[in-house]
Design a protein that fits this description.
456 residues
Length: 456
């Protein structure tokens, strides 16, 4: 689970990145079934990303118009039900050919057998260009995806509402977060503005953007896993959930968050109806193109539990596109991947502000995006990559659902945490016993050592 030194050294040369592109697709010399016929070879690409959707649509349109292999790509954008929809597609034998994978999904997709290794297609040049990350894009010696970009995580806030409430600085502690949300709601409620929101239609997405990073900067594993002991321990989340519940109880949270998806949240924020939320650096591109912001906004480091930074703000990424194991057109899918991973595409992706480059040759030439708010997302001394935690099939309610239920309805939080620890460690023990995962204590692990890996 330890990060490769090669990756950590390569990632040090990161600069913030963006997107949009059109580059020529090289003619294929392949004489396989995909290129022998005049009929179009149609493949589908499924993604759950929407922040870069216009860029991806335009890029795919250019590929469809210019590729010399008669390949036509259909883009399918899923919502927060992406994982469930993908599961169903494999059950019904209608999976996509190309799949968007992320750091919190690629392990699961790999274990389920959804992904095809890409080593047979990789050239020596590509192997050298793209960093290798164990348990992030390579499993058991085989690569399943190549990196494009990563993301930092920040508190996004409405500067106008802060000024109206007389608040000079973003919150740095959970107590300040609660108080700031209350003050903003007091001055904004009459016009429909509230202090805080998250996209709780999908609790794992919402808490993955918020509680996760608050825990990480406070020194706790963002998924409840303690790398030092190799056990699950959700106790570090107690003050975070108490703060979120207090915001909800105070009436400082946007009404209807139970059914709020990320795009409607962004639309509300762009209209000035939300004071703060936590999310990824992709938001900078969102408020330039997808939901042009009508407000003055900025991004700041996320608050920690008590104002002390004892860990690192998780820098996320390491994958992008993968080929389905069930695809009947793997060669055509690879030609599409080759197009999308061309340096001119990746450079434009960076320069539009959609992510932070994880490809050294691209970050070395890409200019800083001219996107409002991007400065707040640039890697700083608190950003770092956490090791990969073991994912296990837990029986019963998952942690994010249990915590969200507590935020809405209350309950005995200590009992909830004890139950989560019991069930997650039982699942971990079973997975270790079956050989499905490996989990060994890292006696010298110090989350504070992760911070600053991306400082310039």
């Amino acid at each position: 689970m330890k990060l490769s030194k090669k990756f950590l050294i390569s990632a040090m040369c990161l600069v913030l990145s963006g997107s949009l592109a059109a580059c020529g697709s090289p003619k294929s010399t392949d004489q396989g079934a995909d290129s022998k016929t005049d009929a179009k070879t149609k493949i589908t690409y499924w993604t759950g990303d929407r922040h870069d959707s216009e860029f991806v649509k335009e890029t795919i349109a250019t590929f469809n118009e210019t590729n010399q292999d008669n390949i036509e790509v259909e883009l399918v954008i899923k919502g927060d039900d992406f994982d469930q929809a993908l599961d169903m597609s494999f059950q019904t034998s209608e999976p996509p050919d190309v799949i968007r994978v992320k750091e919190n999904t690629i392990q699961t997709f790999y274990k389920k057998g959804f992904l095809a290794p890409i080593d047979e297609f990789l050239t020596d040049e590509m192997k050298e260009k793209f960093p290798v990350m164990e348990d992030l894009n390579r499993f058991e010696g085989k690569r399943y995806s190549l990196p494009n970009y990563g993301t930092t995580m920040r508190l996004i806030y409405n500067k106008e509402l802060f000024a109206k409430a007389g608040i000079e600085q973003p919150p740095t502690t959970l107590d300040e977060l609660v108080e700031t949300a209350k003050k903003i709601t007091e001055v904004g409620k009459a016009s429909g503005a509230y202090g805080f929101a998250q996209n709780f239609k999908n609790p794992s997405s919402a808490l993955g953007r918020s509680a996760r990073v608050i825990a990480e900067v406070s020194g706790y594993g963002g998924f409840g896993y303690d790398f030092k002991t190799a056990r699950y321990d959700f106790s570090g989340f107690k003050p975070i959930m108490e703060a979120f519940k207090q915001i909800k109880d105070d009436g400082s949270m946007l009404p209807g968050v139970e059914s709020l998806d990320i795009d409607p949240l962004r639309a509300q924020f762009a209209e000035g109806k939300i004071g703060m939320y936590l999310s990824f650096s992709a938001e900078a591109g969102v408020y330039q193109s997808q939901f042009p912001a009508k407000i003055d906004w900025a991004a700041a480091p996320v608050p920690s539990i008590d104002g002390q930074f004892n860990g690192a703000s998780g820098f996320l990424g390491g994958q992008w596109l993968a080929i389905s194991s069930e695809s009947e057109h793997k060669e055509a899918a690879w030609k599409f991947l080759t197009y999308m991973y061309d340096e001119s595409i990746l450079q434009q992706y960076q320069e539009k502000g959609f992510g932070i480059s994880m490809v050294p040759s691209v970050s070395a030439v890409a200019v800083k995006p001219e996107v409002k708010g991007i400065d707040g997302f640039l890697p700083n001394k608190y950003d770092g990559v956490w090791p990969v935690y073991p994912t296990v099939p837990v029986q019963g309610m998952k942690s994010d659902d249990a915590f969200f239920k507590y935020i809405l309805s209350g309950g005995d939080l200590d009992s909830i945490i004890n139950d989560l620890n019991t069930r997650y460690n039982a699942a971990l023990d079973a997975a270790i016993a079956s050989g499905e995962v490996k989990a060994e204590p890292m006696a010298d692990f110090n989350p504070l050592d992760l911070a600053g890996q991306y400082a310039k």
